[in-house]
Description:
This protein is an alpha+beta fold and about 375 residues long. It has helices at about 10-25, 30-35, 130-140, 190-200, 230-250, 275-280, 285-295, 295-305, 345-350, 365-375; strands spanning about 40-50, 55-60, 75-80, 90-100, 110-115, 145-155, 205-210, 215-225, 250-255, 270-275, 330, 340, 355.
Amino acid sequence: MVMMDVILPSELVQKIIMEYSADLDKSVVKKYLDLTEPEQVQVMYIWIDGTGQGLRCKSRTLDSEPNSAKDLPIWNYDGSSTGQAEGSNSDMFLFPRALFGDPFRRGKHKLVMCDVLKYDMQRPAESNHRLSCEKAMDKAKESVPWFAFEQEYTFIHQDGHPLGWPKMGYPGPQGRYYCGVGANKVYGRDIVEAHYRACLHAGIKIAGTNAEDMPASWEYQIGPCVGIEASDHLWVARFIMHRVAEDFGVVVSLDPKPVAGDWSGAGGHCNYSTKEMREKGGIKQIQDAIAKLSHRHMEHIRWYAPNQGKDNARRLTGRKQTSSMTEFSSGIGNRSASIRIPRHVFADGKGYLEDRRPAANCDPYLVTQAIVRTTVLEDWDP
Length: 382
Ligand code: ADP
Ligand code: MN
Ligand code: MN
Ligand code: MN
């Protein structure tokens, strides 16, 4: 008998889903994936949902291999199930934009990052900042802006605690976990390694990885990439991370402060340079850019985390290598400042700056756009 009248609290349902997913025998599917490779191409369309943080995806079959995103058909989905439309007028449209190899299906199969447009196929969905980002990057292209993101994140176990943490209480205090090695220092390295290789297979510009201060939290770096490419690559790297962790029955959290108290938060530092900053004497341009950024601090804060920036308030406390949410600061080698000039950049007299304010769950289309608007375009009207 099926007991349909028992309503489970949603947290418990979440937990059951996670355990179920982790408990499936992962070797069974291999029998089917080993069938003769199909002639058709499977393409996974990826987009951002109404939360502005969540990723959604669905697959379709094509008869031939696309060479670029332009070769792919426009598609649609039910926006009433993603927090983006009413049920009575629910069609949203996917415009394929950035094409990658698929590390899960391998071979000629693809992943594609999409723009989401409303039913009129003209206006972007509220959570789609890719179009305005592309416009800003296009206007700023003479400056050849480069961006590199540091994506910090935390593995969450089925029990709802960070992976590897004791069921009761806390692990030992921070200070020995950052870039750590050893079973008592880092948790989840297999997932990190799987993600790193999967990103390289896909063609993502992933620059490296390291373990972070808080046990079960890690970082990978994307870039440097020119213009909008940094954001496309970061979003697809996030997709790949969620998908790899799904295979391990682990959830990836981009919460900017996953554990309250004396534990590090998770950021999305954005390293930035223009052509002039990278040339001899570029430190002058870096300092000019910092002066411009100092006048727009609160606007940037609002664009650097969900909920008008409010999500970042738990993280930007001025402690644990963070700066103040309300006051702008900068400094050479200073990790408690809004903007840091790396020591080696200062010594070389050229290079890049690091904006340390963006939260781990930032939208890179907004972060990079805010930076070029303030420092290059001097125009805040998207
Ligand atoms: P941190 O010391 O803050 O942990 P990371 O080494 O994690 O720094 O990240 C710095 C990132 O900056 C790297 O991904 C690197 O590729 C990138 N980077 C290097 N040069 C530039 C540049 N000229 N413009 C933008 N990003 C750059
Ligand atoms: Mn880093
Ligand atoms: Mn870090
Ligand atoms: Mn950093």
